[in-house]
Amino acid sequence: MPMLESLNQFLIKNIWILIVLSIWELIWKAIAMWKASKNNHKMWFSIILIINTAGILPILYIVFTKKNKKKSK
After folding, report:
1. Number of domains in the chain
2. Of 3, 23, 36, 67, which has the fewest beta carbons less than 10 angstroms from its beta carbon?
3. Residue 45: helix, strand or coil by DSSP?
4. Domain hosting residue 38, numbered range
């Protein structure tokens, strides 16, 4: 487990990386959850709430629902 120990030491020395990543995730998660609730997508709201993906899942949700709205108009 030396790899985990070195990762742990790296993150302790560079705590700002965790802080920035947490803020990044929080912002994208909040936007995506707001849009999911506005669009009455209860399943997406729950998935975005539970799964932490460093902002990837919320960004994908926002991008794909935006494209679907344009097509329906």
Report:
1. 1
2. 3
3. helix
4. 21-72
